[in-house]
Specification:
This protein is an alpha/beta fold and about 425 residues long. It has 13 helices and 16 strands. It folds into two domains: about 150 residues, Alpha-Beta Complex (Aspartate Aminotransferase, domain 1), CATH 3.90.1150; about 270 residues, 3-Layer(aba) Sandwich (Aspartate Aminotransferase, domain 2), CATH 3.40.640. Helix 11 packs parallel to helix 13. The longest helix has 18 residues. It is globular, with a radius of gyration of 21 Å. It starts with 9 loop residues before the first helix and ends with a helix.
């Protein structure tokens, strides 16, 4: 049964609510949602949209899932929140148990925070504090690759691409980091050893100042939806080991099955020193994130300087979010998620193929449950968004990209409709 809310006051919304990446001088259109179920969003005017975004890639089980609803109700009837300083609770313990079990060894220490950007901040602070504890405070800068996106808080912004990462105007106040070129070898294509040389050179020249290399494994998300060779990741891991640099894997977008593996690092068969998770962890129900690391790093930090890790969000380890996350992970692992992702990938490959014939299209890319159409030029986003809503699909283009990342359990009819309308809209540009 779908739950509904009152028809919202759009005039108040337009005057007072600042939506993400929007202007208050001429606010972009917004469409009020009154109900959501499965892969469909019901608007206030009664129209149903097939959702291709899974709410920024987080709602992997669809909306209003009965198991996740039940878990949330059970926990809120017990208690919704307690501080995590000096207290603990079973939802956090069980979530940590699951994360340690499913992530690569030797990641066995779990820091639970409240958003993906904070998980990245935590990872960066871990790396810096690790080297400080080892009496090497000069190792405090980060190395990353262009085309990346790691969040909107300050340390996270400093390792986003200076141009495509959407934070160019903050360049003069952000920490200065090292940037290697974006990997050019594509996923599934032959490896060219030259692709890693610039990264190798930066590490060789600057490893004495670099605390960690941070990257999105295999798939760069909001920085450009770029899929690169797992061999690059494997080579990067070896270079970090050779130069005493930690490797941070930002799997906030790719974690929990999106690329066809439970974690994108598995495509390269490597384990990072620090792993960031978020988005899909609660199935999109509540904001929650986690940063995992090894016993060695955790114990080194704990033995040095302040004698503890210097971070502690107010809502860290929120029991309501942790309980839903446990249920979401169980639901994923109990489902035929690999087969579902493979089926979505096959349908995306065949369904989006006609876009390659359109003059406006530069490239079509598909990996797992991610389908991307890259345009030659940036479209009128407002006009394109309206067109897509008129076609009864929810797809939110950005930059020169029109893409979909649907829920894993989207039914074939809805997926087919979503792809069809996406192709229509791109063809009409």
């Amino acid at each position: 049964m779908k739950e509904t809310i009152d028809n919202p006051d759009l005039d108040f919304d337009r005057l007072h609510i600042w939506h993400p990446y929007s202007t208050m001088l001429s606010p972009p259109p917004v469409w009020p949602v009154t109900a959501a179920g499965g892969s469909r969003l019901t608007l206030a005017d009664g129209r149903e949209l097939v959702d291709g975004m899974s709410s920024w890639w987080s709602v992997i089980h669809g909306y209003n899932h009965p198991r996740l609803n039940r878990a949330a109700h059970e926990q809120i009837d017990a208690f919704a929140h307690v501080m995590f300083g000096g207290l603990t609770h079973n939802p956090a313990i069980e979530l940590a148990r699951r994360l340690v079990a499913i992530t690569p060894e030797p990641l066995d220490k779990v820091f639970i925070s409240d958003s993906g950007s904070v998980a990245v901040e935590v990872a960066i602070k871990m790396a810096v504090q690790y080297w400080h504890a080892r009496n090497r405070p000069e190792k405090h800068r980060l190395l990353t690759i262009r085309g990346g996106y790691h969040g909107d808080t300050f340390a996270a912004m400093s390792v986003c691409d200076p141009v495509t990462g959407m934070h160019e105007i903050f360049t003069h106040v952000l920490a200065k980091q090292f940037f290697a070129p974006r990997p050019e070898c594509r996923f599934g294509e032959p490896w060219d050893p030259a692709d890693i040389q610039r990264l190798a050179g930066l590490l060789a020249e600057n490893h004495g100042r670099i605390a960690a290399l941070i990257l999105e494994p295999v798939v760069q998300g909001a920085g450009g939806m770029w899929f690169y060779s797992p061999e690059y990741l494997k080579q990067a891991r070896a270079l970090c080991d050779a130069h005493e640099v930690l490797l941070i894997a930002d799997e906030i977008a790719t974690g929990f099955g999106r690329t066809g593996r439970l974690f994108a690092c598995e495509h390269a068969g490597i384990a990072p020193d620090i792993l960031c998770l978020g988005k899909a962890m609660t199935g999109g129900y509540l904001s929650l994130a986690a940063t995992l690391t090894s016993s060695h790093i955790a114990e080194t930090i704990s033995a040095g300087g302040p004698g503890c890790f210097m971070h502690g969000p107010t809502f860290m380890g929120n029991p309501l979010a942790c309980r839903v996350a446990c249920e979401s992970i169980d639901l994923l692992l109990e489902s035929p998620w690999r087969e579902r992702i493979a089926s979505i990938e096959e349908k995306l490959r065949s369904g989006l193929a006609p876009c390659r014939e359109f003059a406006a299209v530069k490239e079509v890319r598909v990996l797992g449950a991610i389908g991307v159409v890259e345009l030659h030029e940036e479209p009128d986003h407002r006009a394109l968004q309206r067109k897509l809503v008129d076609k009864l699909v929810w797809i939110r283009p950005f930059s020169r990209l029109v893409y979909i990342m649907p829920a894993y359990n989207i039914n074939p009819v809805d997926l087919g409709f979503l792809i069809e309308k996406m192709v229509e809209a791109v063809g009409e540009l």
